Amino acid sequence: MLHTIPKQKAPIIYNSFEYLHKKTQKWLLEIYFIKTELNFLKELISEHVIEICKSDNFKDAKMYLTGIEHEISLNDKLTESIKDHAINLSLLAEGVYLSKQQEIRKNHTILKIEVDNYIENLKYMKQQTFELILRVMNKNKSKKLLK
What we know:
single chain
């Protein structure tokens, strides 16, 4: 039986500047979309605020709204960091910042970790918000069926 050995991803040190720039642009698109998702979650909670206030989920909803506002703020900061990094990568690709090559590659690694963590936080926040809204909607549905 033949076994295929999966290819190892090359460390960031060996990736070309163009590749790193494309990855950075992809992060930017993802971060822009996440901001839209966060605003949607905020609106979703606001849409059901009356039902939430009537239930025992008010503290959770308030905590989620605070978390969403915090994530939106982080989104703006992360967007700026990624934009700055993209500019540095462009300059590096053009041969301008060759002396700062290692520093820029290190920053890329750090940004990658930040973006990955940010995306994981968003997934958790979406799950918690959807579960809250689902509980409220199911409670509402139960009340309507009892009438």
